[in-house]
Amino acid sequence: MSDTEKGTSNHTQHYGGHANFHPTPAPIRIANPGALGLFSFASTTFILSLYNLNARGVAAPNVVVGMACFCGGLAQFLAGMWEFPRGNVFGATAFTSYGAFWMSYATILIPNSGILAAYGTNQDELNQALGIYLITWFVFTFLLMLGALRRNLSFVALLFFLCITFVLLAVGFWSAKVNATKAGGGFGILTACIAYYCGLSELLVKGESWFTLPLGLIKQERVD
Q1: What's the pLDDT score for residue 80?
Q2: pLDDT tens digits along 117-135
Q3: Looking at CB atoms within 10 Å, which of 44, 76, 96, 204 has the fewest?
Q4: How far apart are CA 126 and CA 180, in angstroms?
Q5: pLDDT band for position 5 (50/70/90)?
């Protein structure tokens, strides 16, 4: 087996007439984790948004805890970690942060965490706290959207509708209006569909797939 096949190359140094061989490891090539992060985000968002719409009569969102912990949470968080060595600061920030969001949301719903129990029977205080939680993620998403303005239209649309989703859900908690929560669920489904599209676009690699999906790249003017 050649050095190339082994993934190493031999570097020879001579000291006092003796040859010393030091294998040099080949650079590690990390595959694009974008599809994993986007599909994980999209699937978890899609399920929770259906619950917010009371689809099939479902009102309690607790079934989404498993998805939020491992798919939207852990898988997306790992996708963010893999974006760091690739040098993609935007992807690393987005995937890691939203992975942490889903894990934190799941923690709120887990009974043994004691978070919901801490509010006792004071439902209004809990709703106000959840509204503040969601509006904070709106602020983060809005700032992330500003960073995406010079990337592509698909990511801008994804983050724009996610901003609307967070605002509507926060208003739903603050005002206790079911229609606001359902509207947030509707925009959440739209957000999930755009994320599915972006994830599929990342998956369909040019030269390896029968077709590709455009993300709507934004032309950047050269600044000298």
Answers
A1: 97
A2: 999 999 999 999 999 999 9
A3: 204
A4: 17
A5: very low
- DSSP β-bridge partners for residue 11: 22
pLDDT tens-digit map of 53-99: 999 999 899 999 999 999 999 999 999 999 999 999 999 999 999 99
Contact 55, 186 (CB under 8 A): no
Kind plus residue range of the DSSP H or E element containing 138: helix 123-148
Identity of the residue numbered 152 = N
pLDDT at 205: 85
148/175 Cα distance (integer angstroms): 31
Beta bridge partners of 19: 14
Q: Across the strands, what pairs with 24?
A: 9
119 with 80: CB under 8 angstroms?
A: no
Can you read off the two tokens belonging to residue 223? Answer: 């600044």
Q: How far apart are the first and last CA of the chain?
A: 49
Contacts of 195 (CB under 8 A, 6+ apart): 38, 39, 41, 42, 45, 158
User: Which amino acid is it at 159?
Assistant: L
**What is the amino acid identity at position 52?**
N
In angstroms, the Cα distances linking 15 to 8, 24, 42, 151, 185 are 22, 18, 58, 52, 70
Rounded distance, CA 82 to CA 95, Å?
10
